[in-house]
Amino acid sequence: FSNTYRMIEQDDFDIHTRLHTIVRGEDEAAMVESVGLALVKLPDVLNRLKPDIMIVHGDRFDALALATSAALMNIRILHIEGGEVSGTIDDSIRHAITKLAHYHVCCTRSAEQHLIAMCEDHDRILLAGCPSYDKLLSAKNKDYMSIISTWLGEDVKTRDYIVALQHPVTTDIKHSIKMFELTLDALISFNKRTLVLFPNVDAGSKEMVRVMRKKGIEHHPNFRAVKHVPFDQFIQLVAHAGCMIGNSSCGVREVGAFGTPVINLGTRQTGRETGENVLHVRDADTQDKILHALQLQFGKQYPCSKIYGDGNAVPRILKFLKSIDLKEPLQKKFCFPPVKDNISQDIDHILETQSALAVDLGGTNLRVAIVSMKVNIL
User: Fold this and answer.
1) 78 by DSSP, 3-state: which?
2) In this structure, is residue 260 part of a structural domain?
3) Residue 179 domain-assigned?
4) CA distances (Å), 43 to each of 98, 100, 356, in order?
5) How is 166-186 classified by DSSP, letter by letter?
6) Which UniProt keywords apply (predicted)?
7) Higher pLDDT residue, 252 or 163?
């Protein structure tokens, strides 16, 4: 929902092309149209830029359009964060990008094993850790109180507020909306200052925003509803929160770096590796269940988790990029497990299947014969 390109400009990178591909509507058809629009626009851009390697990150539907275009135009693809497992359509998109990509950077040992199980070439897989952790584990901002005051109010103390971030599950939109409604009811009852981020642009988000407005969240004294928080500031907000609640991947991945308690709702992150700071509420089908989870988690402090990285991912990725031989064949090779060769229907096979080998081990002489199925010695 925001102008995140400004973060690229702030890091002194030139943006050669900007594409507007997101079709508004926030339903399944809009997602398909967005991918289609990107596929129409990308060939011209890639022809002009002629990249040696295309770096594609994550599991979003816009990344699928980019990977598809690059693969069809014979551009090498490096995919970051493949091999992970989660819920919703993102799982399928992530694995589809893996099949299109030529090189892989993964975050965990399990993800690496999944990529190998998916028949990807082990020599083209780098276990680097999550690039976000390079920033998370070095984030030392003494001025975090001013960030908290900016987004939540001057009277809010550390560990005494909640960050809520919930997205639709595109494979079960109706349940997503109901679960979001129950989450907001529980947060209202819990009566703590809460920063609520708007859901992403996946199908179902429009209905979720309607739920927010129906409950008056944007005008409620305990809530601050925002569409975007800059990453550097978001890090500080979750690092000093009393709890994070929702179903965003950052709850089960990045927030573990700070030991902040997390309540993970529903199935959107099913299969993700998590630290001990994450409490799962798989069903999230009653307000009381979510409220009870808030009472258990709020204000706790857990050990910092390094499941997803040790803070040195970027140097590893740069070294991996430099090692790629741009002259090696572009054609992917899949490392399939050995399978029994198909037996072709030739005359030798026919003779073999229509006869048997007989061996007589009696006496001092060894006698061997080929006997037909009609018991004739051939």
Assistant:
1) strand
2) yes
3) yes
4) 20, 16, 61
5) ----TT-HHHHHHHHHHHHHH
6) Kinase, Transferase
7) 163
Give me the phi and psi of 195, to 5 degrees please. Answer: -95, 115
Residues 173 and 236 reside in one and the same domain: yes
Per-residue pLDDT reduced to its tens digit, 5-16 = 888 898 999 999
Kindly report the CATH number assigned to the domain that includes residue 237.
3.40.50.2000
Same domain, 145 and 287: yes
For 116-162, how does the pLDDT look when each residue is reduced to its tens digit (9 = 90+)? 999 999 999 999 999 989 988 887 677 899 999 999 999 999 999 99
117 in a domain, yes or no? yes
Who contacts 138 (Cβ-Cβ below 8 Å, separation ≥6)? 311
Q: 281 pairs with which residues across the strands?
A: 265
pTM value?
0.77
46-60, 259-273, 325-339 — which one is most confidently predicted on average? 46-60
Instruction: Answer yes or no: are the C-beta atoms of 278 and 294 closer than 8 Å.
Output: no
What is the 3-state secondary structure of 18-70?
Answer: CCCCCCCCCCHHHHHHHHHHHHHHHHHHHHHHCCCEEEEECCCHHHHHHHHHH
Residues 157, 287, single domain; the answer is yes
Is there a single domain that holds both residue 71 and residue 183?
A: no
Average pLDDT in the chain: 91
What pLDDT, in 10s, does the model give residues 217-274?
A: 999 999 999 998 988 899 999 999 999 999 998 999 899 999 999 999 998 888 888 9
The tally of domains found in the chain comes to: 2
| Paired residues of 263 in beta bridges | 245, 279
Residue 212: what residue type? M
User: Which residue type does 14 have?
Assistant: D
Query: Which tokens is 132 given?
Result: 């976000």
Show the domain range for 163. 140-297
Does residue 269 sit in the same domain as residue 316?
Answer: no
- Helix, strand, or coil here: 295? helix
On whether residue 352 sits in a domain, the answer given is no
CB 2 within 8 A of CB 228: yes
Co-location of 79 and 204 in the same domain: no
Same domain, 280 and 318: no
Q: Any idea which of 17-31, 138-152, 310-324, 334-348 has the lowest mean pLDDT?
A: 334-348
Q: Which residues contact residue 39 at a Cβ distance below 8 angstroms, ignoring those fewer than 6 apart?
A: 65, 68, 69
Residue 155 shares a structural domain with residue 258: yes
